[in-house]
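Onboarding guide, step 5: your first structure request.
Type a short instruction followed by the sequence, for example:

Predict the 3D structure of this protein.
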Amino acid sequence: MKVTPITQRLLVPVLVVFLGFSSCKKDIRDVEWNNTGVSNNNGTSVGLTEDEKLRQINISIPAQIVKTAVDGSTLKLVYTEDLSALLDPKGYDLSYSIRLNEDFSASALNGLQYTTPGPNGTYTTGWHGNDLKVLSEVTKTDAVVNGKTMVKLHLLRTFTFTKQFASAQEAVNQQNTLLNTKTDAVKFTSYVVFGKDYPASTATAALVYTK
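The system replies with structure tokens like these:
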């Protein structure tokens, strides 16, 4: 993914850069978002059937924070994934699953080993769930958008990425480099599964590295 200058706006409360549809048969469009994280046009779609519009997902993303720390010669990067997905209640009910996938290829997190918290204090290495309908870290509520009640799925969870260096100083040097990085980004893809994979919505946000 090519990172555009838009991703450099790290301090904007809502860092959704674009929302579109990944199917080559669908139009990809830019969407304006307001400071509440809700689409100004309420997800009006181009080139979608009524069935597809029913299952369209709007993704809202605040700043994506990565907290950095050095432990000996190990650099730890704790990424907080924080986003909301909005969709029509009928589309939610008429879905087997609602998938969410992350693409870290435009960031320093790409290819690093990671763990995610599991039940009863356990941790899972190199794997995480991607069905928003069953994840325990998802909170489901109602939200009113332009007078219409929508299902809001709020996901909040952490990934701990680690990278081993030859020395503690090298780890500190890399930490300082990341703290000054203003171009890293993460791309999200979300879609409904109901007998088939429906057209996917995508959103890209900048990553903010902190101590």
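Each response can be followed by summary notes, for example: Residues 1-44 have pLDDT under 50 and may be disordered.
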